Amino acid sequence: MFKQDQEIFNILLETVSEGVIIINNHQKIVEANDSVESIFGYTKNELLNKGLNLLVPSNYHENLSEYLKKFIERRKRRKIGEATDIYALKKDASIFPVEVELNPFTIYNKAYVLVLIKDISEKKEIEKNLMLRTQALQSANNGILITDALKHDNPVIYFNSAFQKLTGYTDLEILNRNCRFLYRNDKNQPGLKTLRKAIKNGESCQATFRNYKKDGSLFWNNLYVFPITNIHGTVTNFIGIQNDVTLRKKVEEERQYLADIFDESLNEIHVFDAKTLKFINMNFGAQKSLGYTMDEILNMTPVDITAYKNDLEFREIIDVLLNKTVNKLEVETIQKRKDGTEYPVEVHLQLSNLGEREVFIAIILDITERKNYTTKLEKKVEERTEQLELALHKEKDLNELKTNFLSLVSHEFKTPLSGILSSSELLSRYQLTEHQEKRDKYIKNITDKVYYLNNILTDFLSVEKLENGKVNYSFTYFKFSKVINEVVYNANMLLKDGQHIKYPENIDNISLYQDEKIIQVILTNLLHNAIKYSHEGSAINILITHEDKFTTATIVDNGIGIPKKDQKNIFERYFRAQNAINTQGTGIGLNIVKTHLENLGGNISFESEENKGATFSITFPNVAEP
């Protein structure tokens, strides 16, 4: 090579940025440029006439010579290192990656190889870092996506496996699409508004909103978005980091739900420390019921709002829970409000844990209504018991009355029948004319007994009709004096020796519109009682008072009277006063009188003192109302 050509060649070598080495067919270095010195750390003189193994790690030495020999023979340009990594060796023994291009050429029938060497350490390091970062992104648990903000609709240009795993979409369904497909039609969310505003303004933001997987299931996405800008400040990309917070949201919702139950419960819920007994929390219902604020409650213990005297007494109650003797405790006590009023409560108490802290949870039921109901129920039971006892007593009395009645009826019928029989037998013995007086006497006896039996039967029939409501009153105009006359006339036949009836005065002008026969029955009954229970020689007085609308008849006797204790029962059917047991009677007359008067719009009253007599007064309308 001429000197001028050599100079030109050297200039060309130095202008090449890659390292240039020329080896001859003996694989000896015959030329190297300055870049080679810079890359490998050798001077040019240290390289000349040296084998290429000097610049190659020892593990390549065995095959390098044979490889170059074949290459020289083939004389075909080739790049080494594009498909596989190859390495070179520096003077300081450090190994570094290179790309090598072998270029065979011939000068003056001598074969040479021009070796272009490019140090790709920095490129490999960049690739390594990029690969590491890519692997890091792919291995991240958070879904990561990158969008191209310079393209229309800001499409997704990258996503990691976590994003795909979370959403379930395929590559084609994710790439080149705006990520709004994740929230489908659920567009009206506060978090999405925040995100849209940040994207529009090229700002970072963090928002939580509902997203939907490919299968339609919902998940809560806590998305952190930040923009990437170029050197001109233009936003070129957005990077989004997803965080699936569905479980957290569910826990928050459950916690909120429990908190709502706690606060909105109609029952009081107290939480207090197991050691200090100081309240830790109390729901709104409890605060409202007790009248204390939460700040006031936090400085109090259950002893301050209950009937327990002190902590010692209260701890004796809850010790069974602390000792694990029982799992829960139910007690009734009294709670005191801030205003001093009290109310009964049922306490359900359990020991629990709040973190590392032992606490008591008490559910308080206001049992005021229950207590009132119980009290009312007990009072009702007591009343019903009294009523039942009274009914039983009445039933007993009734049975007794019925027994007495049957005995009485037997006696009342047997006695006059026996009198009739004996009078009839005696009457048959006196057939002579001079016996007329005796025959009249026995005939009168028979007549009196028959009359008496007729009255009894009339009374019984009246009772039966009154009980069945079969009494039909027949109202007519009549003179009251006519009724009085008939009653007195009939009664005269029953008078005892010396008895007399004082006839009422000024009754001739009294006219009534009433049931005449019933009025007569009533007066007859009362007058016959007065005769029956008065002594011989006594007087019976009849008084009549006639007013505009009512007429009052009063019958006064001086007989045996009615004992005080029997007066309350005197109108009960079949009842007979104790001092009248031995006197003939059925005990139904006064009951009939009272019932008739009430049916006619009237009433009956009496005053009596035992052994001094009785005064019965009846009042009834002058004009009956049919």
UniProtKB/TrEMBL annotation:
It is found in: Membrane. Keywords: ATP-binding, Kinase, Membrane, Nucleotide-binding, Phosphoprotein, Transferase, Transmembrane, Transmembrane helix, Two-component regulatory system. Residues 5-75, 135-202 form the PAS domain. It catalyses: ATP + protein L-histidine = ADP + protein N-phospho-L-histidine. It is a multi-pass membrane protein. Its EC number is 2.7.13.3. Residues 408-624 form the Histidine kinase domain. This is histidine kinase. It comes from Pseudalgibacter alginicilyticus.
